[in-house]
Amino acid sequence: MLNEFKNFIAKGNVxxxxxxxxxxxxxxxxxxxxxxxxxxxxxxxxxxxVDFTNNYAVLxxxxxxxxxxxxxxEAGASVFAYGAFAMAVINFLIIAFVVFLLVRYVNKVKxxxxxQKPPAPAAPKGPTQxxxxxxxxxxxRAGQT
Length: 145
Hints:
Blueprint: H1 2-10, H2 12-46, E1 57-60, H3 69-74, E2 78-80, H4 82-113, H5 129-144
Antiparallel strand pairs: 1-2
Helix pairs in contact: 2-4
């Protein structure tokens, strides 16, 4: 059983998956920073500085007026945090679009680096109808003499 486990771990696709997970985690940090540090502030400027994260509705409990979502949660109130959910959806869409662009770019580079197949040689062209008729005529003439 130990040898089976060693063989399983030594397979290339398991190592590829491990490398992919590690790189994916590092890439997640980069994309998260891109969204929160660069894109969200631009969206905030475009929407007049509106940040949906602190939009919520109190379902149960007492919360001081104008309290942030974190303050409402710390007060023990049951809140419906629709703003945080909206921002999570927006962040997901932005991250998905960035990943799409990255995959698209990688595929273009990969296709450009792939060896191109040489064009298939043209099929030998057969004689035209006129050439065939000329050959038949010449063969018939040769047979009569």
